[in-house]
Design brief:
single chain, mainly alpha, two-stranded antiparallel ribbon, 65% helix
């Protein structure tokens, strides 16, 4: 009935009382209606044959079928359960793909994701994209389309939300590098939400290689506020110093150190202090908690980044030292160790300015403001 309402009334209207009842008409096509409201054909594979016939020989119906499917998935009907919705989207998407019309399925995904959206419509969009990515013939087309949406497309409505879901939950499983690139573009473009940025950070948290790739990409970016925001969230010192069953941590790699220094330098010169001080304190907390070589290395990277600030070098050093004093009061660990970390940072700052030897004293003093 909903499909007929979309297509409009027949040219010669007939009163419902003059029509044969539904059971008789279903009997003509060897079908029966279950108590769940679903209609099933009695003959094996007859349903797929009917779908193929309608799709192949009635092309004008295709856009209406997409609109109809969107309305069905939103029905507030106890019979339209998740399985029914998913099956409907699966079959509609399958027909688009079978007939080589991946672009039209992509357009349908956009329609479901924009305008007046609802959770069922968004789930349908996610399911349709997932079906496209799993198709052996058209998967590459969908990966390319997803890239265009993420990097250059107009992210209207909830399309970005759908793309984050698909990239994080589907594409990351089969093509993690491509998922990283697409989430990266979504993260740098998103406004008013951190959904893509969080998904990107979650992705690299599970892979040192991807984490390295992201840091390198950020170090070669234009250091816009969006890029620096991604860096601050992705530079979790816990992950950087994690061994994770290997002989070294990511922060031990020279390439990662170069990326971290370049990004921190951009942060110190381009962002106002309130936007980065919390992350600096997190690094200082980690430095205080680490009893190995990473404690000094975390401080070295911060000092090295500040030293590059040329005209703002003194201000950057002072701000880092102030962060260290704040970190003493807010740190979760031992207060004595936190004070020693502040003293070590002060010594490294002094050494960078040429007013102290490179080797720190055995017991680091608390020091005063540089």
């Amino acid at each position: 009935e909903q499909l007929l309402s979309l297509l409009g009334p027949p040219s010669e209207s007939v009163s419902p009382l003059q029509q044969r009842d539904l059971a008789e008409r279903l009997l003509d096509i060897s079908a029966t209606a279950a108590i769940t409201g679903q209609v099933r054909f009695d003959k094996l594979d007859f349903a797929s044959a009917v779908r193929a016939h309608v799709w192949d020989h009635m092309p004008d119906l295709r856009p209406h079928l997409g609109t109809w499917a969107a309305s069905v998935v939103e029905l507030n009907d106890p019979h339209v359960v998740t399985l029914v919705r998913d099956s409907l989207v699966e079959r509609v998407a399958g027909e688009y793909l079978r007939t080589g019309r991946a672009d039209e399925l992509g357009y349908l995904v956009e329609r479901w994701s924009t305008g007046t959206t609802s959770r069922p419509r968004l789930e349908a969009a996610v399911h349709a994209l997932t079906r496209g990515l799993a198709d052996p013939v058209h998967a590459r087309d969908f990966r390319r389309q997803i890239y265009q949406w993420c990097a250059n497309g107009r992210l209207e409505g909830e399309l970005a939300r759908v793309l984050v879901r698909v990239c994080a939950d589907v594409l990351a499983t089969s093509h993690p590098d491509q998922a990283l690139v697409r989430l990266y573009h979504l993260a740098r473009r998103e406004r008013g939400t951190g959904r893509a940025r969080q998904a990107l950070c979650d992705l690299v948290a599970g892979s040192r290689r991807l984490h390295r790739v992201l840091l390198d990409r950020l170090a070669r970016s234009d250091f816009s506020p969006a890029h620096l925001g991604i860096f601050l969230q992705a530079s979790d010192p816990e992950l950087l110093t994690l061994h994770s069953g290997t002989s070294h941590a990511l922060i031990d790699e020279q390439s990662a150190q170069r990326s971290l220094t370049a990004c921190w330098h951009a942060v110190l010169t381009e962002l106002p202090p309130p936007q980065w001080q919390a992350e600096a304190r997190r690094w200082l907390h980690r430095a205080a908690a680490d009893t190995g070589p990473h404690s000094g290395l975390l401080l070295d990277l911060l000092v090295s980044a500040a030293q590059r600030c040329t005209e703002k070098r003194g201000e950057a050093f002072a701000l880092l030292y102030a962060c260290a004093r704040d970190a003493e009061r807010t740190g979760p660990g031992d207060a004595v160790r936190a004070a020693e970390t502040t003293g070590l940072l002060l010594h490294k700052i002094s050494a960078a300015q040429g007013i102290a030897p490179a080797t720190p004293p055995t017991t680091s003093p608390r020091g005063t403001r540089p």
